[in-house]
Fold each of these.
Amino acid sequence: MRTADLVTSALLILLSVVVMYDALRLGIGWGDEGPLSGFFPFWLAALLAAVSAALFLQALFRRATKPFVSRERFIPVLKVLGPLAAFIVVTDPPGPWSGLGLYVAGGLYLGFYMRWVGGHGWRAVVALSLTIPFITFLIFETWFLVPMPKGPVEAWFGY
C-alpha cells in the first residue's frame, strides 16, 4: 500500500505541474472581465499538488506492510476492467480499422457482462442486449440528433 501511495501521489504531483505550466501559458491573473483562462486550472492544480505532496510525505514516513490489494479483491476489478477495455477497442479501434460502433459494441458488452459477471439467464441477456442499444440508438440518433460512433450494422440500416 505504501508503494502505491508513493507512486500515485508522485504521478499526481507531476500532473499538477504540467497543468500549472499550461495554465501559466493561458494566464492566471485577473482580466477586465474576470479571471483569465488559466486562473482556475492553476489554483486547482496547485491545491492538488499540495495535497499530493502531503500524501507523499505521509506515505514516505509510514511503515505499512499491508498489501495494496489482495488477489481476491483484484479479480473482480479485472472482471470489470477487461471487458470495458475490450468494449472501448471494439467500439472504435485506433488506427485505420473500423469498429463495430457504440450500439453493437454496447450490446455485446452488456450481454457479456450480464452473463459472465451477473450470471443471468440467456433469455434476459439476449432481450436486454438487443433492447437497450436499440433504445439508446433511438434516443441519441433520432430524438437528440447526436451522432455517436457507428459501425457496419448502422451503415447497413442507412445511418
Amino acid sequence: MLSKQQARAFFLGGTLVTFLIFIGLTIYSFSDGNDQTNYENITEQVVRGKVIWEENNCMGCHTILGEGGYYAPELTKVVERRGEGLIKAILMSPVPWEPNGRKMVAYGFTAEEADDVIAFFNWIGEIDLNGFDRIVSPLAKDKQLLNNQSEN
C-alpha cells in the first residue's frame, strides 16, 4: 500500500513520463521524413473536387479515411478498386445509380466536374494509410467476407 506521499510521487512521475512520451511522439510525427499527408500533390483540380465533394454532401452517405456516412461504399481507394471510367460514368449519369438496392442521387456532373472529383479521389487514394485496412466501413467488410467465403 502506498502512502499519500508515495501516491503523489507516483502520480506526478507517471504524468511527467506520459507527457514526455506525448511530446516525443508529436515531434516524431511532424518530422520531415514521416509526413504521410500527400499535401505536396494538391492541385487546383483536387481542390475543386474537394469543393464539389463538400457542396454535394457526399460524406452524408460515403466515407473517406473512415469519416462520413456508412450508407454507401467507402471511397478512400475507390479509383484503385473501380477505375476512373466507371466512377466518371456514375458521376455524370443523368439517372440515379442503384447498386445493390441502394440509390445514389443523380448529380449529372459535367465532364470537368467529374474529372475534378476523380482527381480528388486519386489524391486521397495516394495517401499513405500506414498499414490500415483500405476498407473501413463495417458494411463493406461484411460484404467482402461473404465474397471471400463464396470464392472458397
Amino acid sequence: MATMGIDTPRRRAAGMVCTGILVLIAVAFLAPLIWLVLSCFDSAAQTSVKLPDHPSIDNFRAVMNTDMLWRPLWNGLLLCGGSALITVVIATLAAYPLSRYQTRFRKPFLYTVLFATGLPITAIMVPVYGLFLRLQLIDSMPATAVFLATTSLPFAIWLIKGFIDNVPISLEEASWVDGASPMAALRYIVVPLIAPGMSVVLIFTFIQAWGNFFVPFILLQSPEKLPASVTVFTFFGQYGAVAYGQLAAYSVLYSMPVVVLYLIVSRAMGGAFRFAGAAKG
C-alpha cells in the first residue's frame, strides 16, 4: 500500500498525459461556447474565435423581431411544452402499475419499452410521414407534439418507474386501509413524493424536443408554425451568406428558455428527494 504513493517519473508522465487529454477535451467543449458568446456581440463575426473590435448589441436587434425570433420561440414553447406535459402524465400512469403490480405481461412489456428506448427516430420517420399524410395531420402542431411525446415515452417510463419503486409501499397500504383507491393513492401520495423526479423527466423531455430539428422539419410545413429549432436553419440558406453574428445572437436567445426552465424547476423543487422519513412516525 505504501508504494502506491511514490511519485516516480513514469507516474508523473502518465499524469501529465491524462491532464493533457482532459485539457484538450475541455477546450473542444468550451471553444464553441466561447465563440458563441464573443460572436453575438461582434457585427463582423466569422468562424474564428476573437474578441470583437467594436462590441455592440446590433446582432440582437437584428434578430429580435416577430418573424425571426418571437413567433418561432412561441411555437417551440407550445410544441415542446405540450410534448413534455403529455409525456410526464402518460409515463406516470404507465409506470405506476409496472412498479406496483405483478402481471404476466410485465416483463415482456418492460423489454419492449427498453427496445423502443434505443430505436433511432430517423428509422421510423418515413412510415410516420406516410401515416400523417393519410390521416391529414401534416402541418398539425398538436399531432406533432403528440408524436414527439410518443418518442420520449419509453425512456420516461423507465425513469419514472425507478422513482416510484423508491416510494415505500406502506404509505399506499395505509391509504388503502382508509378507503383510498389506487388512483387516489397515486395522486395524493406517490405523485407528491416523486415530483422532483417528474420535474427531471419534464426538463429532459423538453430539452430533447427543444433541440429536435428533424421531426418538426418533416411534419410541419407552414413557416408560421415552425419552431425555433427549424428557423435557425434559415441562417444558412434563405438569407444568402451566413450572418455569424446574428446566428450567435439567435442561438443565445434560443437557449434561454431551457436555462430559465431549469432554474425555475430547480428552485421550486429544492433539488432533493424526501423519501427518507416519509414512512416514519
Amino acid sequence: MSSFLHGPFAAHQNPVLCYLPFVDVAVPAGFPSPASDWAEDRVDLNQRYVPHPEATFYFTVSGDSMIGPVSGRSIPDGATLIVDRAREAVHGDIVVAVIDGDFTVKRLYQRHGRLALMAENPAYPPLVLGDEQELLIWGVVTAWIARPQ
C-alpha cells in the first residue's frame, strides 16, 4: 500500500472552547475503575494540543508506511495528524514533508550531514533525496488521533 496525506486542513484560529471532563488518573488495563468518581478538572483539547492555532493544520493519513512494530510510534491508516508549522523540526521528529510537490509523513533523520525521511514500517526503505529532488519540511507532527480498532 502506498502512502498519501489528505490535507492540509487549517485549524480554526479562534475555536469555540469545548471543555471536557479530564480524569487525572491512569487507567489500568484489565482492572475496572470507577473513573467518573475521580473527575477533577476540565480540559479543552485545542488548548492541550494546539499551542499555535494560526500555524496548526490537520492531515488524514492514508497508507501503512508509519505503522511500525513499536505501538507508541505507530501511526495507523486513517489517523488525524495535528501539524504545527511554527515548530522547528529536529532529528527524530515526525514531520510532514513535501518531496517534489507530494506530501508525506515520516520521521526526520538528520545526523552528521545526512538527511533522510524514515518510515516506521520496516518494509519501507529510508527516503534519501537525490541531487535533483526538492524537499520541504512542511511542519512537525505534534500529536495524532486514531479511532480504536
